[in-house]
Amino acid sequence: MNTGSEIMKRLAIRVAVVCVVLGIVAVAFAVPPNEVLLSGNVQTFTGVCCFSWGETVSITEPKVPVPIVVTWSTDYRASANLFFNVGVSVNGHPCLSSDLIAAASPSDGTFQARTFQWVIFPSDGLIKGTNNITLCGGGSVATDNITLAGNTLAARISK
Amino acid sequence: MSGMSKIVRQHAICLAIVCFLIGHATTAFAVPPEQVLKLAGSSLDFTGPCCFSFNESISVTEPAKPVPVVVTWEVFIFEGSGNLVGLMLNGGPCTFYGSGSISGFSDSSPRMFQWVIFPSDGLRAGSNTLTLCGGGISSGPNFLDTFGMTLAARLSN
Prior knowledge:
The complex is a heterodimer of chains A (159) and B (157).
Chain A: H1 2-29, E1 36-39, E2 43-47, E3 51-61, E4 68-90, E5 96-104, E6 112-120, E7 129-139, E8 144-157
Antiparallel strand pairs in A: 1-8, 2-8, 3-7, 4-5, 4-6, 4-7, 4-8
Chain B: H1 2-29, E1 36-47, E2 52-62, E3 69-80, E4 83-89, E5 94-95, E6 101-102, E7 109-117, E8 126-136, E9 143-155
Antiparallel strand pairs in B: 1-9, 2-8, 3-7, 3-9, 4-5, 4-6, 4-8
């Protein structure tokens, strides 16, 4: 009886270990829902670079932060004289505006579509735990307008 | 000595089971082939007003509690009139899950779109079919000439 309960105890410990391991594996591959964002609203931003465009996703970094990949896909019309800067801000830090959107106002009233991908390194300000990634930008040289229609913002940890 | 080897054997079996389960879990997270579509070197032309099926589909398998899906479509466009492109979820209406505009132009270029579909959009446990759809929005001839495309989905959580 004593041997039987000992076997049961060992079995229970092993099952627990397996469950913990499986849980860790599942969490490692999981992507929390706030890592993706879909905005269907038409919204216009006016100003010189750089200011927040109000769209934020969050991503959770491990103890030792690793690079993340952020992808933004949008429909837009822009009345800029030259270009618009667009980028992301990490945890409220200054806008990393490394890309440009050219002026676009199709005469048929349609929108242009563009997709941007940014790779953010720990040295850009990523910290252990929750990190907020916010879209930002503005007119490159003057106060201009950019109107966004449907757009998505998604972040994922690089592996 | 016999007891010792029994314990070692039990631990070895336990370790093998854990490794087996981790291996299976990793495989489960790999991208299944039905979640991607690649049409390399294929010219596809779509003609007509929005919205109709482009008859190009992928499938994504949702867990018991559906999670958001991120879909990316990369396409090389020769030329086209003003078009909209979206997805039909499980044969439903053509819906725009983000950017979907292809304005009228004649400059050939690759384009990429990213769409996010949430469970509230109608994702269900098990297999879900995502079909490209769209069409022209101009008052004149509506056409979209493409060459090569990839369509891929990944589960979020």
